[in-house]
């Protein structure tokens, strides 16, 4: 069976590819429950739990606050979210692939399943 090699997530200049950025924007928007353009602590916690199984620890939160773009309330903006993934992808692209797959993306960066949609799915009534 041939080995499947996923596409690269970054351009030659280190920027995220459009397909990767589009997937990350969609993930960010899924967790931005109040649609204010930033992830509050509870929204960021929900994202971290779905991605890593637990919330970010104090050190990770400190790094987010110190190095990434935040709004005037200290919440992670879309720009900051993309910065976070650009940093991760440049050093550990495999980790970004794991995250994308946890959020329902295949190796072609196509959404095939959504964690939030699965969680929010209501059982369909059975008709006799």
TrEMBL record:
It comes from the Eukaryota. The keyword Membrane applies. InterPro entries: EF-hand-dom_pair, EF_Hand_1_Ca_BS, EF_hand_dom, Miro-EF-hand_domain. Residues 19-54 form the EF-hand domain. It is found in: Membrane. Keywords: Calcium, Membrane, Metal-binding, Repeat. SUPFAM superfamilies: EF-hand. PANTHER family: EF-HAND CALCIUM-BINDING DOMAIN-CONTAINING PROTEIN 7. This is EF-hand domain-containing protein.
